[in-house]
Design goal:
It contains one helix and 17 strands.
Length: 235
């Protein structure tokens, strides 16, 4: 027991475990580009909210959603439509820096579109003063996925594709956005001639032009195309 106490004291004295308290935020949380006004350059701020210097790398990826409106789990594909300057920055505690996002796509944007701005901490050596013995740094990796929204100002609309009963007395409804504008799915509900159906699944992200979306909900039977009318209700 005595030897164990000596070992504990030795380790406490000569081996300090340090958690690197680096953190940052990206502002704004949603980066908008007004394509109808010809806007092709916007700024985003990287803010060091931690207690130590931090290095941040930024990349733009294609934003792919599955049928349920979730980000796909496949390996993200870097987009060639954007230039980021600077793409890597180092910030001291409490400081911020502006990053320029420039759209360089050659195709004319005729419909709303979204991308993902991925920003992540890059590990860098951290010097700790006043630590006796061996200092072990345990980095806290911080990453963010920020939506870049290219907006045309056009109205979005969902079109009925199919409806059927599935397990647990649930109804599956497939719709498609065949318009040129995004359709926000937050607070979305279905109004029939007799009911208002709330609690839809698949409402996490907007339905973008060209995308299909699956909604599921409790109901006694499948719906027909003539019955489906989308409305918004408070959360």
């Amino acid at each position: 027991m005595r030897n164990r106490k000596h070992i504990v004291c030795f380790l406490t004295l000569f081996c300090a475990v340090i958690v690197a308290r680096a953190a940052f935020t990206i502002e704004p949380a949603l980066v908008r580009m007004n394509m109808a006004a010809g806007e092709k350059v916007v700024l985003a701020d990287v803010v060091n909210t931690g207690k130590t210097p931090i290095a941040v790398a930024l990349t733009v990826f294609e934003r792919e959603l599955d049928l349920d409106g979730e980000l796909t789990k496949s390996k993200p594909v870097p987009s060639k439509d954007f230039t980021i300057y600077p793409s890597e920055i180092i910030l001291y505690s409490g400081k911020k820096a502006s990053v320029q996002l420039m759209y360089k796509g050659k195709e004319r944007i005729a419909a709303d579109k979204t991308y993902t701005l991925f920003s992540t901490e890059v590990l860098m050596p951290i010097e700790e003063e006043g630590v006796e013995g061996v200092a072990v740094n345990i980095p806290m990796i911080v990453s963010y996925y920020t939506v870049i929204s290219l907006e045309t100002g056009k109205e979005g609309k969902l079109t009925f594709v199919s409806s059927k009963m599935i397990e647990n007395n649930m109804v599956e409804l497939i719709v498609e956005n065949r318009s040129s504008g995004r359709v926000s799915a937050r607070g979305l509900a279905i109004k029939t001639d007799t009911d208002i159906i709330k609690g839809l699944t698949g409402t996490k992200n907007s339905v973008m032009p060209g995308q299909k979306r699956r909604f599921t909900f409790k109901y006694m039977r499948p719906l027909t195309s003539k019955e489906v009318k989308f409305i918004y209700v408070p959360d």
